[in-house]
Design brief:
The protein is 6% helix and 47% strand. The C terminus is likely disordered.
């Protein structure tokens, strides 16, 4: 195989334009000469049309096929240079209003010369979340750091939430993502290896597997509201009291 294709999407509502936008990135990687071509298309719901954007200078290697939506931007883990490691080392954000890509400033991360870094991106509560995996030269993950950007866009606002080592798990420590807090906020639900869930106790640092669940491929956090998304925009504008009520009664629910 001399080439492979990575296709990712991002769907979000732009409140400034009262409009939904769908971003599609087709990244073709050419293995022979270690180059890539990332074509970008943007769908506008209001105009019911696609627009071709300039090719982005990044290759998308994130495990998150759907972009992570934070602060009116869609995020992916990417790289600017294809090598034998195929490891993303940057986070880019597509701003829905400006319709441009920007690099997200990252914290300083130190790694031993005998190890490699693998960066992924996720959403935890309302914060942009970065998962940093430390791997040996044979791609064996030894530990994972989970970071939160508490104030979006500011490098110094990155806060390391916790670190987990492989010895705490009964399965390979890959594709780890934090999903949500338990009600007392002392425990975090983790997804590991796509189809396993674990509770992590922040106080005791104990990891417990969640048993009795049916087989599943993906666990997703869903933010729900009392306002149906199909409500016509004209009706929302003519009923401001309902809009105020929505802001006051908005709730967040979690689904697996």
């Amino acid at each position: 195989m001399e080439t492979f294709l990575v296709c990712v999407y991002g769907l979000a509502f732009n409140p400034f334009a009262d409009n939904y936008k769908l971003l599609r990135i087709n990244c073709t990687v050419y293995l022979k000469d270690r180059t890539f071509n990332s074509q970008v298309r943007l769908f506008n719901l209001k105009t019911n049309s696609w627009k071709v954007l300039p090719n982005m200078p990044y290759a998308v290697l994130s495990t998150a096929r759907m972009g992570v939506f934070v602060e009116n931007s869609l995020h992916w883990a990417v790289t600017q240079k294809i090598n034998d490691k195929f490891q993303p080392c940057l986070i880019v954000a597509f701003n829905l209003t400006q319709e441009i890509f920007n690099e997200v400033p990252l914290p300083e991360i130190r790694v031993a010369s005998s190890a490699m870094l693998n960066i992924d991106v996720s959403l935890f509560e309302v914060y942009l979340c970065m998962i940093v995996s430390y791997q040996t030269l044979n791609y064996h993950t030894t530990k994972v750091d989970v970071w939160l950007m508490k104030e979006y866009g500011f490098r110094d606002s990155w806060c390391k939430l916790f670190t987990l080592g492989e010895w705490r798990f009964s399965i390979p420590l890959i594709y780890l993502k934090p999903l949500c807090y338990f009600s007392d906020r002392n425990m975090i639900l983790l997804k590991v290896y796509d189809n396993k869930l674990f509770w992590y106790d922040l106080n005791s640092e104990k990891v417990t597997c969640v048993l009795g669940l049916p087989n599943f491929h993906e666990a997703v956090i869903c933010a729900g509201s009392l306002l149906p998304p199909s409500l016509p925009s004209s009706r929302k504008r003519t009923n401001p009291s309902r809009k105020r009520k929505y802001k006051q009664e908005k709730v967040i629910s979690y689904f697996l």
